[in-house]
Amino acid sequence: IMKDLTTDYELSQEQIEFYEKNRFIKLKNVFDAETLEFYNKIISEQVEKMNTVTSKVEERDTYGKAFLQLFNLWRENETVKEFVFSKRLAKIAADLMQVEGVRMYHDQALFKEGGGGITPWHADQYYWPLSSDKTITAWIPLQAVALEMGPLEFSAGSHKIIEGRDLKIGDDSEKLISEKLRVTDFEHVIEPFDLGEVSFHSGWVFHRAGANVTDQVRKVMTVIYMDKNMILQKPTNKNQEVDWHTWCTGANIGEVIDNYSYKSGGILPHRRQVKWYPNTIERSAMSEAMRNST
């Protein structure tokens, strides 16, 4: 299983060009059945532990009906962390965006329950205080996803549209973005996902998902990446303000968000920047615990 997380997934030039043009791509056989079966169980158990939603699906608003949404499972479970920090996924993200390296913005589980509603049209980067479009989300189904379960849908190339970027996920975004896309030439891609198939989409491409009309949970794990040199921009809405203080703690506006990075091909690929304390502390002034640690 660990080999499936660490070996490279080689992309063709055609695939990189397809992503550059359409700002999404679906890749087959990213993970094998054994790996997905193992992490499906682990991630499902962690979602059950972290979930606090007790209301029935029909009692929730449109966003609440769309899915159960749990963030940063990697901080709560070391086995989930192995999956989220997969070198294989991070390298695909870096290669598709054609950047030297990536940092993880955050992970999230999106479990669309049986009977769950649509995920309205939206662009993810509405929520992110990030200065460029070098962002990408890996959407990883933990099982095959039939059309009836509500697979992710894309408006290919719609990252070029400015209108609709200021809308959070909800009834308004579904209505207004749908109306805008209807009069464009962008292809609306609606396809099932095979077992092991993973999609990658950019922060500004419009996407949605249909309702889950089955009695099974559509289980998806996602990892959001950004260029390792991404600069924090001044938030333009309250959601970006929240994201700044949630996912970019300690980062300053106008500076690189540098608490974590992945260096493709490096001896130590997963890295966190160290900021050294500028003053020297005499050993005699240290606590006993500190003295014993050095």
SSE topology sketch:
Layout: H1 2-6, H2 13-22, E1 24-27, H3 33-50, H4 62-66, E2 68-71, H5 78-84, H6 87-97, E3 101-112, E4 119-122, E5 135-141, E6 152-155, H7 171-182, E7 188-189, E8 198-202, E9 207-209, E10 218-227, H8 238-247, E11 261-263, E12 270-271, H9 288-293
Provide tags for this entry:
20% strand, 294 residues, 9 helices, single chain, alpha+beta, 8-stranded antiparallel beta sheet, 12 strands
Question: What is the structure about, briefly put?
Answer:
With 294 residues, the chain is of the alpha+beta class.
What does this structure look like?
With 294 residues, this protein is α+β, with helices and mostly antiparallel strands. The protein contains nine helices and twelve strands. It has helices at residues 2-6, 13-22, 33-50, 62-66, 78-84, 87-97, 171-182, 238-247, 288-293, and strands at 24-27, 68-71, 101-112, 119-122, 135-141, 152-155, 188-189, 198-202, 207-209, 218-227, 261-263, 270-271. Strands 1, 2, 3, 5, 8, 10, 11 and 12 form an eight-stranded antiparallel beta sheet that branches. The protein has a four-stranded antiparallel beta sheet with strand order 4-9-6-7. A hairpin with a 6-residue loop joins strand 11 (261-263) and strand 12 (270-271).
